[in-house]
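Hello, quick one for you while I still have it in my head. No rush at all, and the record is pasted right below.
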Amino acid sequence: MFTRYITIALRLFRKKKTYTLINLTGLVIGITLFFLIALWVKDEFSYDRFIPHAERTFRIESTTLSPDGTSMELAETGWPVGRTLQEKYEEVEKVCYIRSWNPMIKLKDVYVREPSLFADENFFDVFGYDLKVGNPQTALKEPYTVVISQAIEEKYFGKGNGLGKLLMVNDTIPHRVTGVFKELPSHSHLKIDLVGSFSTTCAMFPEDCKYEYASGWFDINVNTYVRLKPNVTSKQFENKIKNLVGTYGKEAIKSTGFNTVLYLRPVQDIYLYSGKASAAGTVGNIQTVYVFITIGIFILLIACLNFINLSTARAIERAKEVGIKKVLGTDKKQLIVQFLIEAGLLCTIATLCSLIVAYLTLSPFNYFTNKNFTISTLLAPDNLILLVSILILLIPLTGFYPAWILSNYQPVTILKGSFTHSSKGNFLRKILVVTQFAVSICLIIGTLIIWQQLSFMKTQSLGFDKDKIVVVDMKEVQWTARHQQAETFKKELSQLSSITSVTGCRAIPGRSGWDGQFAYGEGLAQGQGILVEHIPVDYDYLKTIGLKLIAGRDFIQDSKADSVESYLINETAMKAFGWNTPQNALDKKLSASGMNGKVIGVIKDYHQHGLQEAIRPVIMNVTPSINVFAIRYSGNDPDLVVTHLKKTWQKIFPAYSLDYKFLDDDFQQQYQKEEKLIQSFSIAAILAILIACLGLFGLATYAVDTRTKEIGIRKVLGASVTDLVSLLSKDFLLLVLIALVVATPLAFYVMNLWLQDFAYRVSISWWVFILAGITSVLIAMLTISYQSIKVAVSNPVKSLRSE
């Protein structure tokens, strides 16, 4: 029986090649995209699953509350938090400290910065990393010890030769290798090749360390992880520790005026849900995952709707087959099984084809998602099970409704020749076409609005001159080298006449300075401070970046007073301190980051960061903290500047690799999320329209086939080609217009919600919906017109002879 059903299905596929190809193409596109997205989503959700007792392991996160009501959410805490948790709370089983570390290690004649962090002796117990050699209980106990990956071992010492060797850090500090990792888990929110002992910090700066553990409640610069004891309820414990700083850090709160609230973040939620990386870590975005899932479901749904629509539209062709089979004794259950097998066979062929297409599109998909999927990934048992699961889900979705409809035909009606499509069936097909195009139009509208917002952010005035500036990243250069050679580097660069100024600073626009610093201004009550972004700069910062002073003066070169007690602030900071006018702010006392001084100038507000967020208070002073150099040049020959930069770099920093960009490009990197989103929506819109048009083409072909004699008679009676094309097209175009009416309010609502996340945003323009409507109508018209024109210009004699 089963073999006979397969044979009938294959005959049907051969006989109706056009419909089979349309259905197959739509299903292959839908399954391929859904499968690839499912692989990506599965990969994103797999982070940190290797951690033992993950359900009891949490990162302590903090929200700093300022007296003026503003707040800042951080992934870090102050140092006393972890120690207090270990000593005062019996629910805590383990505490682990992690801190950023950026060591420079010399490899032959070149310095290399490896992905690194400091961690205490509980690191291996809490995170479950395995060592190939070394004792995990003691490997990070002593100062100046380090655990390295096998890749680092082979790179610096040779394979299997690392344990016990000395690794020279920053040219001056030897660290003994006490362990070598086994293969590091790739799906971890911590990206590391080297872990140094946390106690090294205390060995290097004992007094600072003593202060931090005792009083550093608001020196929020360590990641604190806890593992709770079994049977401890995380929600109850979170409520218990929320005000820990207020309970044990009263003196710090009293002296600063600030407070901190603590929260628990499950370790397996850090990657996707936190948006905040730990030291040497990386994070994903759950919103992006939801977008991808939605796109995958929509595309697969449209493909299924295509199949259902075409199957039910062609029901009349199979009506006689059903009638004869029922007369000969075939029951309804057998007919349903037959039609489900036909749908299942086509879905199986589409699934096999989609596996091939997935392999062929793997390279661009990897590029788009920053993954490294291979053919081995596709053929992995769990992923093949995933593909089979998609197939199992797809068969009833595509096959059950057509099977139910076909099996319900009454043989008496069919064999009398009076069978026609029911009004309910016709209405359902129209609903399906409207649904397909409504989804497609929503995606088109979404793409246009995202593009509109992105264009708006890229073209707005930023308050500084971002053109003709080369940015040199100094993070790969040793701290001492970059500061000792700073003036020499600037002088050498300035020898090129087209270079007008050079500045060395902590952060240029588009990058973060010292964020979340406490600042106290004259006139505010004791302990009444605000949160600011503190950017250490040099004397040439304003003129190089192109910032505008609206009151006061710039820093004076080599002024001792300016180097120890002068601040520049932006307008937003001026208002936050309560100094109503720029002139009123001059000479006001200001204390921030432990440095006391006075305001010498007010800078016109500018965008230090992208337009996703509002302008925040910014303060600047002359402090040697160089992470980047900015080089402003004149003329129209950037290649000349870059050539001179490379020669100067080789002369001053020969042991380090040069990393440079242009400021306009560097600033645009803040919009990568939006760039990725518009790419996703564009691809989804194209595929959705393609699948919908395949279905529309199939329905148009079927409509033409069923009205062949009518068209022939109309031609004989004098109907023109235009009349016939209009007759055959108007019903379909009406459905597209209805889809536009349905999609417009839905797309407006969703995209308006999306825009609320931007501090500076566009208003949704009416032309977006007009353009989406015109685009969809034109695409639908082109799809329908081929078949319409083809039959309209054909010889009516042939159509009148046909049966």
In short: Residues 54-274 form one domain. The longest helix spans residues 423-459. The two ends are 33 Å apart (CA to CA).
